[in-house]
Design a protein that fits this description.
This protein is α+β, with helices and mostly antiparallel strands and 95 residues long. It is built from 1 helix and 2 strands, in the order αββ. A hairpin with a 2-residue loop joins β1 and β2. 0% of the residues are buried.
Length: 95
């Protein structure tokens, strides 16, 4: 009795070319690009003199954002300045 033909899945398909480190590099760049897009899309800048209203999935949360770039990192900055000037004695009455 003759042997029946054997079938192997994928035996007739050509093998994938070995890309070496190129495929890994493309994956790294794709992950980096995705991280940059997520970072940029999660921040906002509110122009001077305006207030922002925070929304979550299109619904107003009720939280008001101040002007500038709002952040929740807990970093508090303080700036002390001083101004030195000399008053012209002849112009003192006009000041």
């Amino acid at each position: 009795m003759p042997n029946p033909p054997s079938f192997e899945l994928g035996s007739g398909l050509p093998g994938m070319p070995n890309l070496g480190g190129l495929g890994k590099r493309i994956l790294q760049l794709a992950v980096l690009l995705l991280a940059i897009i997520l970072l940029v899309s999660s921040t906002t800048s509110i122009p001077t003199g305006n207030m922002g209203v925070l929304t979550l999935f299109g619904k107003v949360t009720g939280e008001v954002l101040p002007e500038g770039i709002p952040s929740n990192e807990g970093l508090i900055l303080a700036l002390d300045t001083s101004l030195l000037f000399h008053l012209n004695r002849d112009m003192a009455a006009q000041v």
